[in-house]
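Problem 3 from the worked examples.
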Amino acid sequence: MYSSTMYSINLIPLYLLTFIFLLQGINGIDPLYHICSNSFSYASGSPYDKNLNILLNQLNTKVPPTGFGSSSVGTNQETVHGIALCRGDVPNSDCKSCVSTASSEILQRCPNDKGAIIWYDGCLLKYSNVKFFGTIDNGNKVYLYNVKNVSDINSFNQKTEKFLSQLSDEAYRSRLSFATNQMSLGDLETLYGLVQCTRDLSNIQCKKCLDDAISELPSCCDGKRGGRVLGGSCNFRYELYPFVISK
């Protein structure tokens, strides 16, 4: 089971929300989390509304073949910008299903909102009236963690941070900005990890985003048997059980 603590814009804890998640598969129908910007709204049937629907349709087409896509639709104040990213190990068919579900769900959860982001286990989708491509998103961030602790917290934290940092070094050099691996912890336990960036970031931005997220490990998941940070530009996850899809 997982608990979540959400931090709002710029990681300022305006409020904390804790609840329990049931573990789901890649095609789980419920999102892990979503955030509505609640800053600007649009009217139904307006140019922004029409442009947003065009954008979502474009992402549904552009993303599945490669696992990532970005687009901008409209002009002047009616322009909407968006990206969608599928987890690097997710098959194309599951990627397509996830982005399609996210496109529909985000409109229901953030109706008439000019900016929103939604995370699933297999993908994320984000749109805004402000162009954000190539900029690290430090505003949208969610912590998820297993409610159970390991026995040796200090040692586990050190090993996990080092392991994820190694994955960060691998991911920012990779074409897909994605890396996953496993590491033996002894006593018949294995640590599994995954890191990923949205591909609108440069290599250096990807590394900074991941390293900053990993540095929050003590705040996010101190001694927890599993955890993840979901961000608008990058994310990481670690578990003591295998969760990556073998291709």
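Problem 4, a separate protein:
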Amino acid sequence: MNKVSMLVLAVFLSISMQAFGNAEDKSEEKLPQTLEQAVDRIVSNLKEDDKSTVKNTPFNNLIQYHHGWGTGIRNSFGLWGRNKELTVSICGPDECHPDDASMEIIYGVWNKLNGNDTRYKPNTEQP
């Protein structure tokens, strides 16, 4: 991973922790209950430079944010079991792993910043 990617990850982790605070201090009522609420909360707390960075990251490269930013999302939004409502909103009644749920939130942020529906999945397959 190059220095720029590592810096971006550090910035996102910092933003996630500042925006959401300590997950242990949050009550269930304060956690987002839907993918759309989670995405809206993140987007509203991102600085313009960070919005631009996410918006201009190719969809297939969003996985680079899994550690750092994704960790902050998983911990802050209770994806390790405290927030079943959010997990079900993201993945359906079968739920999913917190890693997968946080990536769906990251995809949702990218989508919102790029003017797409929150749950949009671009065709990224190469012909």
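Solution to problem 4. Residues 3-18+30-113 form one domain. The mean pLDDT is 84.
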